[in-house]
Amino acid sequence: MTATITAALAGNPNCGKTTLFNALTGARQHVGNYPGVTVEKRSGNVKTDTASMNVVDLPGTYSLTAYSPEELVARDFIVDERPQVVINVLDATSLERNLYLTIQFMELGAPMVLALNMMDAVKKQGKTIDVDKLSTLLGFPVVETVARTGLGKNALVQQAIAFARQKEKTWQPLHISYGPVLDPILNDMEEVIRESSFMDQRFPSRWIALKYLEEDEQVLKLGEASGAKGHQQLKTVADKAKEKCFTTLDVGPEAVIADFRYGHIASMMKQGVVKGDTTHQRIHLSDKIDRVVTDQFLGPIIMLATLYGIFYITFPIGEIPMGWVEAFFGWLTNAATAIIPESLLQSLVVDGIIGGVGGVMGFVPLIMVMFMAITILEDLGYMARMAYMMDRVLRMFGLHGASLMPFIISGGIPGGCAVPGVMAARTLRSPREKLATILTAPFMNCGAKVPVFLLLSAAFFPDNAARVMFVITIISWVVALLVAKLLRTTVIKGESTPFVMELPPYRIPTLKGVLIHTWERAWQYMKKAGTVILGISILIWAAMTFPGLPDESANTFQEQRTGVEATLAAGTTDQQRSALEKDLMAIDNAEAQAALKYSVAGRIGSAFEPVSKLAGFDWRTNIALLGGFAAKEVIISSLGTAYSMGDVDPEASEGLGARLANDPTWSRATAMSLMIFVLLYAPCFVTVAVIGRETSWKWAGFSVVFNTSLAFTLSVIVYQIM
């Protein structure tokens, strides 16, 4: 039996680490979350003739000082799980900067193999890297790789396995001199740590001392929680060191530490590790492109055109497979109707289960096309440019450049989805900016809301439907930014974090990488949305079906129906027969209305009517909006049922639009008020669940109450003014 080796795959963001992970593991991957946090955990298996290697793809990080959940997860995995080898992936085109993380791994003592990635780009720049010399200077293997083509992956696996076996159970921390100011202080701190056995079973003693000087939040909390005398001693020494550094060097200890680490790297580079064209005057292709795409005036125009293009191509490309999915669920509906006799069971299966799940799954092709386009832009390197350009605007409202993508994915350009949008906020380093982004992203014009707006704008504003859709989209952005500003100046106060984002060189995405990332995102959507919507659909069906009309009321309608049927049976003219058939239909509709109003949903809708009338909503509209709390996709079908139209296909909503336009209780003011409310009120149940998972259920509840209150207030204002 071959031995199993655990390897941690680590590196800076945008170094090609995930592409290499996909190249190594292929389809043998598992995706989940690290315990207690929302950071994604990916692992996969690589097998050779002599060993099986479990590769864990750690989150991208620039440092092992825990400034973000990603950095904390990466560090804790290395420290607590103690993998047999760390495969450190570097962007070889920026070797000195990427080696900064390598040095920190070495100070921790982790056994390591270096993967010099993007070596093809290094050669295009006219450079060469002396791999053997770099390996000698570092003291561990260095392998050249090109992740997007798979070049060097086999050699990397062989070197990792061999080095893991050679260095098994031996961790040897690197000792760097930090100069005449800090070295004596570090020595004193190490002595305190050794004498008090202060966390030195988990971390190297010198590394603990460095973290106290860097004011690492997690290490300080661990020290305080331990209650050991060593914590206070180290804290006192660290405070004195900070004062001394500012007095003598005019900078803090963390800056001194960073300078000496880079100095250590520079000393290696001076020994001829990199050769060739190393001048900084050369303008590479990425720089030339950035001069255009990040230009002050052209950049935003290109960005808007690109984002619009995503949704412009999404519908034409996704339309055909979307038709296949709809046809399948249509066939499934007909089959269930034919097999199951007319009964409550048939209604449950057809209307509740197939109708509910089919309504969500019908959007999967569109979602996949959208995700594929976004993945291509991410792998290409353009998403970082978008965040870079928008940071100045978003910062004015207490957000961050990295907040842009959650907004866009949530429906910043109509058609997104708040579920992956909220999840995309994981990229924000600041918890406060992340929270503000998560709470405001659901205001965007997601794909589930779009059919409602199309229906109402076409029915009540036929000559200006496109303009109304544009105005609704602008309103979503304005409200999201203003609410973000309100939150950041009240309940989520805090300083904005600096915008530090690497602009990676442009790279051609690989088909394999794009397909893997697209499928992962789409599968998460199907699992989360499909399963939850199934339960919601059954609940809505039950609420609109039970308890049913009392026998007395049902008998009254039956007596009316019997009378009309008796007249029909007696024989009439064609004109009279047509009128009587209409009477029968009117009786059926009246009975359906009465049954609906008597149902649980009808009673709740009627209970809210005295208040909802302020915004122009009657009890039937309230029922549809109650369904929208669960999933915005069901608003149109709920409106159709509530207005006695039976099952309504959201894609063929002209009939419903005409009914609403001709209904005396509806007007342009009602339509506009409803659009504002649907745009802004509580996120759907799936989104609320994701918000709860990404933050806490307290904030998830806040989003429901606050968003609904804001939506109703603005809807009342719009209705009363119009």
Explain the overall architecture.
The structure is a single chain. The protein folds into 3 domains: 3-166, Rossmann fold (3-Layer(aba) Sandwich); 179-276, Helix Hairpins; 288-547 and 599-722, no CATH class. The protein has 31 helices and 9 strands. The chain has helices spanning 17-25, 69-81, 95-108, 119-124, 131-138, 153-166, 179-196, 205-213, 217-226, 229-248, 253-269, 285-293, 298-339, 344-361, 364-380, 382-395, 404-412, 418-424, 431-440, 450-460, 465-488, 511-545, 551-570, 574-598, 600-612, 619-630, 635-642, 654-662, 668-680, 685-694, 697-721, and strands spanning 3-11, 29-33, 40-47, 51-57, 85-91, 112-117, 127-129, 142-144, 274-276.
Lay out the secondary structure.
Blueprint: E1 3-11, H1 17-25, E2 29-33, E3 40-47, E4 51-57, H2 69-81, E5 85-91, H3 95-108, E6 112-117, H4 119-124, E7 127-129, H5 131-138, E8 142-144, H6 153-166, H7 179-196, H8 205-213, H9 217-226, H10 229-248, H11 253-269, E9 274-276, H12 285-293, H13 298-339, H14 344-361, H15 364-380, H16 382-395, H17 404-412, H18 418-424, H19 431-440, H20 450-460, H21 465-488, H22 511-545, H23 551-570, H24 574-598, H25 600-612, H26 619-630, H27 635-642, H28 654-662, H29 668-680, H30 685-694, H31 697-721
Parallel strand pairs: 1-4, 1-5, 5-6, 6-8
Antiparallel strand pairs: 2-3, 3-4, 7-9
Helix pairs in contact: 3-11, 7-8, 7-10, 9-10, 13-14, 13-15, 14-22, 15-22, 17-18, 18-30, 19-21, 20-21, 20-28, 20-29, 23-24, 24-25, 25-26, 26-27, 29-31, 30-31
**Separation, N- and C-terminal Cα atoms:** 77 Å
Class based on secondary structure composition and strand pairing: alpha/beta
Largest sheet: 7 strands, mixed
Number of domains: 3
The mean pLDDT is 83
- pLDDT < 50 runs, ≥5 residues: 278-283, 644-654
